[in-house]
Amino acid sequence: MKGFRAGATGHITNKWQVFAGYTYLDGEIINGIAANTAGKVPTNTPKHTATAWTSYTFLPNWEVGGGAFYMSERFANNTNTVQVASFVRWDGMVAYHQPKYDVRLNLFNIFDKKYYDALIQSDGGRSVPGTGRTAMLSFTYRM
Predict the structure, then answer these.
(1) Which of 25, 72, 108, 131 has the fewest Cβ atoms nearer than 10 Å?
(2) Using CA atoms, how far apart are residues 20 and 36, in angstroms rounded to an integer?
(3) Structural domain of 137
(4) Under 8 Å between Cβ of 36 and 29
(5) What's this model's pTM, rounded to 2 decimal places?
(6) How do residues 74-85 score in pLDDT, each as one tens digit?
(7) Which residues contact 79 (CB under 8 A, 6 or more apart)?
């Protein structure tokens, strides 16, 4: 497999943080054991994957953030006959910070995008749906 990965993270201001990442994979099966797999793309190998996230601290203790995750189309088998489409999923969060604890609400797949999270080769290729819109409330306590 040939490819590269790049990422950057930093602060635009002391209250505004950003993160971005990109991966390129040029996957190819060289010596496939199964018939009709040589020269094909391996199962569940997207050519492009990207993510971007930003968060901003407003008021002394509050933080809000959001971002997107992108994955290009992938194959569900090594003969490349079953394919799932690319997708973009948007997530967000709001957090309240204190010296001894944090309370955080994460929202995953805000727009309830239908996508496939995992691809399985068995039975000629199957797809596992991604999680729909989900909220998670977490509490972190520091000793």
Answers:
(1) 131
(2) 37
(3) 2-141
(4) no
(5) 0.86
(6) 988 888 988 899
(7) 34, 36, 37, 40
